[in-house]
Amino acid sequence: MKKILIASYYLDFGGIEKSLINLLKKLDPKKYDITLLLQEKRGIFLKDIPSYVHVEEYALSNIRFVPLRKIYNRLHLLWYTLSHFKKYDHSICYATYDIPSSIITKRVGKKSTLWVHSNYAFIYDKENFIRFFDKREVSKFNQIVFVSNESKNDFLKIYPSLETKAKVTNNLFDVVEIRTKAEQSLSLFPTKENMLFVGRLEEDSKGILRLLSVMKTLQEKKSHKHLYIIGDGPDKGLFEKYVEDNHLENVTFLGSKSNPYPYIKQADLFVLPSYYEGFPVVCMEALILGKKVMTTIAVTTGSFALKDYVFLAQQDENSIYETIEKAFINKIPKAFDENTFIQETIQNTEKIIEG
Fold first, then answer.
1. Which regions of the chain does DSSP assign to beta strands (E)?
2. Residue 85 to residues 38, 94, 115: CA-CA distances in angstroms?
3. pTM for the predicted model, two decimal places
4. Which DSSP symbol is given to 187?
5. pLDDT value for 330
6. CATH second-level architecture of 176-339?
7. Mean predicted confidence (pLDDT) in 219-226
8. Residues 6+ apart with CB under 8 A from 299
9. What is the dotted CATH code of the domain comprising 2-172+342-354?
10. Which of 21, 81, 154, 318 has its CB surrounded by the most CB atoms within 10 Å?
């Protein structure tokens, strides 16, 4: 039985945290002895950790006196890595952004993997891209895993020498959970021709202002289409002001929802106008629920190409408008076979763990 360590930050609400829980549920406890190492043992997903997973915490200090805090935390990390040196057959840094996790995983595993959940080429310029990955000593990992071919290819433009270490696999989904949580008999939308966005309310990545501008055009054209928005984030006020300033009666903010699946199930069209995504998990959840999806994101993993299953718009506002209109008229391009997708993902993930 292989000893596996997976390191992350905490398990509060978020896409990385949710995909981590789904990964833990899919790993075979007869094949793997799994330890989950958290910097902070907190978050709403703690209760969802399978019983066969050992959960540990390496809590770092929050002492206000910065020099003392730095010394303590460095010594604490040194002690942990020395006391667990090469203890595991494979160690995985699952939270890309968490530097302590990257430090630990490179030292406690006979093999180590860095999991990259986003396409950082869209987030940083070249200089900051290099600074981000060099801080994590990316070249010292045995494997670097990406959630889409596009993310991998953009990474290799900057780090071509690491091509043999670069792998691609997708996030896993709990189909039963999604469908169970989607069951709700109440009618959630008072309108017909409803559209739904679920996600972080942040303009730089999600491109929501373009969608709101499309809603303005639809209102001017006397369309009955209505957009509902679930989520919260730093630009919520910006979006609310746009709606108010333009007197949009066809946009409703629903706030955050701990269970958005009933809303996704009852939506006529799910929309995601992002400028970039590592892999749009929420689109996959909408496809699992049999929904029409309009998105600006075209990503691939293995034999799977998202563009085959969605109404794909270009990144300009006019294309988004035309694709929304097309989506309401036409049938789903291709039915999503989640079983094949999940089995391929599990196989790819196990190959990575087997290293």
1. 2-8, 32-38, 54-57, 88-93, 109-116, 143-146, 166-168, 194-198, 226-230, 251-255, 269-272, 293-295, 300-301, 304-305, 311-312
2. 17, 19, 20
3. 0.86
4. -
5. 97
6. 3-Layer(aba) Sandwich (3.40)
7. 97
8. 148, 149, 150, 151, 277, 279, 280, 305, 306
9. 3.40.50.2000
10. 21
Give kind and range of the element (H or E) at residue 138. none
Q: What is the pLDDT of residue 13?
A: 67
**pLDDT digit string, tens, across residues 4-15:** 999 999 887 677
Query: Cα(286)–Cα(231) distance, rounded to whole angstroms?
Result: 16
Per CATH, 2-172+342-354 and 176-339 having the same topology is answered: yes
The span from the CA of 328 to the CA of 325, in Å, is: 6
Contacts with 235 (C-beta within 8 Å, 6 or more apart), sequence order: 201, 202, 203, 208
* Distance from the Cα of residue 78 to its chain's centroid: 31
Q: How far is CA 333 from the centre of its chain?
A: 24
Average pLDDT over residues 160-189: 91
- Mean pLDDT lowest among 72-76, 118-122, 158-162, 263-267: 72-76
Structure tokens, 246: 């333009």
pLDDT (mean) for 163-169: 96
Q: What is d(CA 196, CA 226) in angstroms, rounded to the nearest whole number?
A: 8
